[in-house]
Specification:
Blueprint: E1 11-19, E2 22-29, H1 31-34, H2 39-52, H3 61-71, E3 78-80, H4 89-94
Antiparallel strand pairs: 1-2, 2-3
Length: about 110
């Protein structure tokens, strides 16, 4: 498969919101990120998220983010919850990017 270089911004917005009483980081990826399944690109995008929301750098948030980038990229927005347990990337994927008992509102 051909490799292409992903350029330009990867994150359109990253904003803290409250959903169903829970603090959540609403991330809006650009089409450039949506079109990439590369974990390295997702990790570069995470740095853009941290530039917009530095307090998102908590255990488990990166795993939730990379999981969404690789497996839920077409969702309108990605919601990352710092309350979710940090269980590692594999368990985060097995939990549908949403580990723990926090219900996913969408």
């Amino acid at each position: 498969t051909p490799t292409y270089r992903v350029t330009g911004p990867l994150i359109a917005a990253a904003t803290w919101v409250t959903r169903e009483g829970e603090r959540s980081l609403q991330v809006s990826p650009t089409d450039a990120l949506r079109g990439s399944q590369d974990a390295d690109v997702a990790r570069r995008a995470w740095q853009e998220v941290l530039g917009k929301a530095p307090d998102a750098d908590t255990p488990g948030m990166l795993d939730q983010f990379v999981c969404h980038a690789q497996f839920a990229s077409q969702k309108a927005a990605w919601f990352l919850e710092p309350r979710r347990p940090a269980v590692g990337y594999t368990k985060t994927v097995r939990a549908g990017c949403n580990p723990g008992d926090v219900q996913d509102g969408g």
